[in-house]
Amino acid sequence: MDKEAAKRVSEFVLRASGELDESVAFVRGNCSETELLAYRESIGRVMNDLWTSVLKPIYSEHPDLEPEGLKE
């Protein structure tokens, strides 16, 4: 993927991850503990897939795009 496309995809995915985090906070305040645990587990799998399938390959190819807070 060329660098500009990689940058845009990274930005989209990071924004989506932030929205997913916010959704967990919403569920925490509006649903039962059982629902929260199931939801949080599902969102965790989605975020892991986004990291391993989308972001990690981008940052492997373009390490300078990886945000400081995400560097391993």
> What does the average pLDDT come to?
95
Uncertain parts = none
**Rg, alpha carbons:** 14 Å
Binned, the helix content reads over 70%
Lay out the secondary structure.
Elements: H1 3-30, H2 33-61
Helix pairs in contact: 1-2
Describe the structure.
With 72 residues, the protein is an all-alpha fold. 79% of the residues lie in helices and 0% in strands. The mean pLDDT is 95.
Summarize the model shown:
Helices cover 79% and strands 0% of the residues. The chain has 72 residues and is an all-alpha fold.
Keywords:
72 residues, 0% strand
